[in-house]
Amino acid sequence: MDPFTVVGIVVVVVLSITSHEAAHAWVADRLGDPTARQLGRVTLDPRPHIDPMMTVILPGFLIISGAPFIFGGAKPVPVQIAYLNHPRRDWALVGMAGPVCNFLLAFLLTGLFAALLKIGIWEKDATGALILVAGIYANVLLGLFNLLPIPPLDGSRVIQYFLHGRALKLYTRLDRYGIFILVGVLLLAPQLFWGIMVPAMNYLLDTMTGVFGVQAEVAYALRTLFLG
Length: 228
Hints:
Elements: H1 3-30, H2 35-38, H3 52-65, H4 87-118, H5 127-146, H6 154-161, H7 165-172, H8 178-188, H9 190-212, H10 215-227
Helix pairs in contact: 1-4, 1-5, 4-5, 4-6, 5-9, 5-10
């Protein structure tokens, strides 16, 4: 893969992560909690969202060490639940905002990819086309990954809305162990993780590309990206 393509993919992935976090911050602000806005998190500028350990050190270490997976994240968006207009419901909506943003971005990038191909600006193996498809793939992956019901991922915020009493207390206690549970699953049960993720990703990719009639072109670009 040439350096320009690599840089382009890095840029689109960083913007996808930034959009995810900005969506959390924007929805929290709209629902009554101005904390993230006051801290400058309602922005597409990546800098306020970067966490030195999770965004830089951990992924870099995993890449250098040849780990079988790459894992990382942005700085969590601070939310004061008590400030939300309807705390239980709004906490779930704030959690959903990031994944929904990623799915919308994937859909928009698919439409842009289809339009540029159909008017003849790019061929399906053009560098720009490959970067767009990488963005589609990254946003689908980010959205689905964050919907996993493992605290502190966004899916856990949705699950909490449906729990009450002791069940809710026990579930929220998992927050402090969630990162270890997640890494443990990735290391010890990758078949389970990808057995869930791959069918869900394929379904979403097939659905979105089907809307714009570019299933074959996106599949070709993905093979080019991953297989060379």
